[in-house]
Design goal:
disordered N terminus; Metal Binding Protein, Guanine Nucleotide Exchange Factor, Chain A; globular; mainly beta; 117 residues
Length: 117
């Protein structure tokens, strides 16, 4: 299985592409998201909301938000797998700027989550 891991800091490019292969986001072998309709932005696969395994996602206890000049304000999720909580490892743009409309209500992940085909 090919694995794709991402750094914490994305490039400044606004290019995005539609994924065409079935991608999975996993933690310790547990699938937390799966889709063949991810959107790739700055090297991150953004998974559509209906591909997320909701039982693993909770709003981040930190209430963290961050801003991107062209995407807008991101809010974060903690992920719970096998009783362990990984804090602020997933993010979403619920109200993206117009240039990032294609990732509205999609979720992307930090490197604690393995994303691969």
């Amino acid at each position: 299985m090919a694995q794709v891991r991402y750094g914490l800091f994305a490039s400044t490019s606004s290019n995005s592409t539609q994924g065409s292969m079935n991608m999975r986001a996993t933690i310790n072998g547990t699938v937390i998201a799966e889709s063949d309709e991810t959107v790739v932005v700055e090297g991150n696969h953004y998974f559509p909301a209906d591909s997320i395994k909701n039982e693993h996602f909770v709003a981040a206890a930190s209430n963290l938000t961050t801003g991107c000049p062209w995407k807008g304000t991101a809010s974060y999720y903690d992920i719970v797998v096998d009783g362990e909580t990984l804090e602020t490892v997933a993010w979403t743009y619920a109200e993206p700027k117009p240039e990032a409309e294609n990732i509205r209500d999609h979720v992307a992940f930090y490197p604690a989550v393995t994303v691969g085909a």
